[in-house]
Amino acid sequence: MQPETTTLSQNTLNNTRSKFLVSALNGTALYVLAYYLVWALHQAARFYVSRFYHLRGNWDPSRIVYTLSDGEWWRTAVVAVHGIGPVVCLGLGVVAFRWFWRSERAKRGNFKLLLLWVAFHACNAVFGALLADTFIQSGFWYVPDWLFRLGNVMNVTLAILAGLAQLALGYFGAVAFLQAHDSKTVMRYANRQLMVVCTLIVPWLVGGAFIALTKINYITVQEFLHLAMMGLLVTPLALGCLNEVFSDTVRKPQATQVAWSLVGLAIIIALTWRLALSPPVAFG
């Protein structure tokens, strides 16, 4: 009887590992898709506002770079072009989370997790970006600096508050993140540490590395910091998941299998983004 028991146990272990690997791959694809959706809207909004104010610049795979001299800027233009992206992302994040919470969390499938990653990336495009951009005094940092003109101490204070807000939102998002998964094996509390690694840490690190590689030769320190700032959300989110005993899922969960359509779509969008903006698109 012992060999049979050992075989069954090994099969169960292999099946569990397989499900977590699948979850990690699908989660990474969703992470990348959500990233490009959020930042495409962010930069598209900035591009159109820039054209509205007849500003000159170039749009490359990593950022929009302006070719105006310091004397050609005025307060309204600075606040508008650097503030429109975060405003759009804030609205997108609220819509995505409400959609998830009210309509999708009790349904099966990957769409609900995509909505949640969109909400998380949108959060990072506001709070994480303000903190990151304050370090290098660029991007979103220009908005409070030119809008309030209260000095560097106030700018740093606002950035720290933004970082704390991101930490808090990450921790309190744990229950929502747990409800975004179908697999009973993944949701089992005994597997919670493995779940955190495969569905949170791996998508953040591997997804971020993939995004950076597809923007090689263009990626900037600013975008590296934006990708890193997701850690301010992912880390407390992971801690919240570890502390939360919630382990229920939908009654008839979707089979745990690789969503090749999502994986392929993530790769296609990343490459299309690179090709469409390389060489950079000039405007103005």
Automatic annotation (TrEMBL):
Membrane-crossing residue ranges in chain numbering: 20-41, 77-101, 113-136, 156-178, 190-212, 224-246, 258-276
Keyword terms of this UniProt record: Membrane, Transmembrane, Transmembrane helix
Keyword Transmembrane applies: yes
Descriptive protein name: DUF2306 domain-containing protein
Native species: Hymenobacter frigidus
